[in-house]
Design a protein that fits this description.
116 residues, mainly beta, 7-stranded mixed beta sheet, 4-stranded antiparallel beta sheet, 11 strands, globular
Length: 116
């Protein structure tokens, strides 16, 4: 059974950093593209970053480029999102995501709040 479990969210002041983790279970993690999404209150869920199977290719939305870094450890079956220089507009629930054989899978989400 495919399962994605996020952790690492919390409350941080503007300019601070957080590192999110997404632990993967029930599938061959190294074979699949992985993504981080986020959903802010009252807004649609948006794609934040993606990473290919080896970790050698990454992409980001413009608003986080240069501040966030997506990575993965295919031995630990875990994906990460290092978030630096956080801004209040980064406040959202962050989800990890993958697609396997036409089916999509989401974690339960982890809350990130950037506030004084």
């Amino acid at each position: 059974q495919v399962q994605l479990v996020e952790s690492g969210g919390g409350l941080v002041q503007p300019g601070g950093s957080l590192r999110l983790s997404c632990a993967a279970f029930g599938f061959t993690f190294s074979r699949y593209f992985m993504r981080w999404y986020r959903q802010a209150p009252g807004k649609e869920r948006e794609l934040v970053a993606g990473i290919n199977t080896s970790g050698g290719i990454t992409n980001y939305i413009l608003s986080v480029k240069g501040r966030f870094t997506i990575s993965r450890d295919n031995v630990k079956n875990t994906m990460y999102l290092q978030m630096n220089s956080l801004k209040p507009e980064d406040t959202a629930v962050y989800y990890c995501h993958t697609s396997i054989d036409g089916s999509t899978y989401w974690g339960q989400g982890t809350q990130v709040t950037v506030s004084l």
